[in-house]
Amino acid sequence: MLIKKKNSVILLNGVFKDSFFEILRKRKVKKVFILEGRPYLDGAKEMCAKLLKHKITPILIADNMAGFLFYKDLVKEVWVSYQETSKKNVLCKIGSLILGVMAKRHKVSLRVFPSGKRKKYIANPKEIFSFDGKRIAAKGIDGFVPLLEDVPRKYIKEIYS
Questions:
Q1: Which residue, among 73, 61, 5, has the nearest Cα to 34 in the 3D structure?
Q2: How far is Cα of residue 112 from the mean position of the Cα atoms in its chain?
Q3: Which regions of 8-64 does DSSP assign to beta strands (E)?
Q4: What pLDDT shows up at residue 147?
Q5: Strand (E) positions, 37-129?
Q6: What DSSP line would sit under 135-153, residue for residue?
Q7: DSSP 93
Q8: What is the pTM of this model?
Q9: What string of DSSP letters covers 46-61?
């Protein structure tokens, strides 16, 4: 699928409350980029199903492809799900901080919307050693799997509640 700058689309990270889809419907969004959401693949599994249900075409990408999309001017806006807010930061799904940095650098708006599910802060390292039930990492290694991270408010254009 070839996407050109004039057809750039929204980039999503996380699992959003159901009311999020009303915003997309009102804005007549037809397709979005969605990060796969490792280690649980919640973007690929949950969000893609929800998007299709709402007649929005998901374009699934690997989590680490977001920088390439920004570089090619294919992102017009970023939305990430969050757990909670504070005066300085918003606790968002992992990967959101780099999206905020890239959005600011590329002059793209970052908006945050409540998550549709609560996450623990850190997953078991074993969660990233396998893919689709098959071990992909060498034995004898350790892993670090944060699931949430703070995004400074300076990167965020709008916080929905």
A1: 61
A2: 10
A3: 9-13, 31-35, 57-61
A4: 96
A5: 57-61, 75-85, 89-93, 109-114
A6: E-SPTT-----B-EEEEEG
A7: E
A8: 0.93
A9: IIHHHHHHTT-EEEEE
Tokens of residue 122, six digits: 């850190």
Helix (H) or strand (E) holding 131: strand 130-131
Residues 56-88 have pLDDT tens digits of 999 999 999 999 999 999 999 999 999 999 999
Domains in the chain, please, with CATH?
Answer: 5-159 (3.40.50.10470)
* Residue 29 near residue 39, CB atoms below 8 Å: no
> Residue 50: which of 114, 94, 116 has the closest Cα?
116
d(CA 160, CA 111): 8
β-pairing, 134-135 with 130-131? Answer: antiparallel
42 within 8 A of 15, measured Cβ to Cβ: yes
Token representation of residue 158? 């709008």
For residue 5, give both structure tokens: 């700058």
Residue at 105: amino acid letter: R
* pLDDT of amino acid 27: 94
